[in-house]
Amino acid sequence: MQRRQFLQTSGLLAAGYMVGPALASAAGPLTGKIRKSLKWSMVQDRSLSLPETLAKIKTLGYEGIEPRFREVEPEAVDAWKKARDESGLIIDGLVAVPFDQLREGVDRIKELGGSSLLLVVRYDEKKPYKDNWQETQAAIKDAAPYAEKQGIQFLIENVWASFLISPLDMKTYVDEIDSPAVGVHFDIGNVIRWGVAEHWIEVLGSRIKKLDLKEFDLKVAMNEGLRKGFGMPMGTGSVNWKAVREELVKLKFSGWAAAEVPGGDFTRLADVSKQMDEVFELV
């Protein structure tokens, strides 16, 4: 049995917020299981101080925030920690950490009080597919013991890189690394171009530690261009959210789910928070 199977976890214990009236009488089985987060890049109103901004985000129903690695430079760590402490908003993870700075990323998110680094496995099309597979795995394997020692997880995201584009590929890739510190940050909307989100969840199972939430509409993508498919509000496109919920319930998923959609002002972020509540039946 692989060592990662001894330490399967679904992330942090959940404490959900209940925002939005749409489904107030029909809270579903994921209520109290999902902790809502969002990407810092979505926050486009920077008129307030950092502590005030994070505090405002918390009032919209979010518990966490995920900045990019480059958005929290070493000299800014203390300011982010102060804002975190004053606002009560958790910095649950860092996004887009370069593979040549994995240990630095571990140290930074550890200091910020978070639990994970989101890793995007790039596909260098100038290399053979197998070489890309093995070389990226080697980089993760090299740093994984350090991450495990610090209690930090490397979570691989499925992206539009024409690499790891089936659930069996992702499962095999993670299992071959064979570390309890390595799992999946599963992006629900990203898979719709190639497959079915609930089928991915069924295959990946407890390897999924965190979620990214966005919609994707296949009809819009076919008629207006692929990336236009991401423009629909959650719950109005091709994602079968009912089936996704059912698979997450079977998985007994409990943990972070981050919005990754076009951002805007605080009114826009409040609307996204409500969309998350509705597709997961949190209210």
Features of this protein?
283 residues; alpha/beta; TIM Barrel; two-stranded parallel sheet; 9 strands; 37% helix; globular
Task: Give a structural overview.
37% of the residues lie in helices and 14% in strands. The chain is α/β, with parallel strands linked by helices. It is built from nine helices and nine strands. It has helices spanning 50-59, 77-87, 102-112, 129-150, 167-177, 197-204, 218-224, 241-251, 266-279, and strands at 34-38, 64-65, 90-91, 93-95, 116-120, 153-157, 182-187, 208-213, 255-259. Strand 2 (64-65), helix 2 (77-87) and strand 3 (90-91) form a beta-alpha-beta unit. The strands form two sheets. Strands 1-9-8-7-6-5-4 form a seven-stranded parallel β-sheet. The protein has a two-stranded parallel sheet with strand order 2-3.
Number of domains in the coordinates? 1
Radius of gyration: 18 Å
**What count of helical segments does DSSP give?**
9
Low-confidence stretches: 1-25
Distance between the termini: 40 Å
Tell me the major beta sheet. Answer: 7 strands, parallel
Fraction of residues in helix: 25-40%
Percentage of β-strand residues: 5-15%
Coarse morphology: globular
Strand and helix order: EHEHEEHEHEHEHEHHEH
Strand arrangement across the biggest beta sheet: 1-9-8-7-6-5-4
Oligomer: single chain
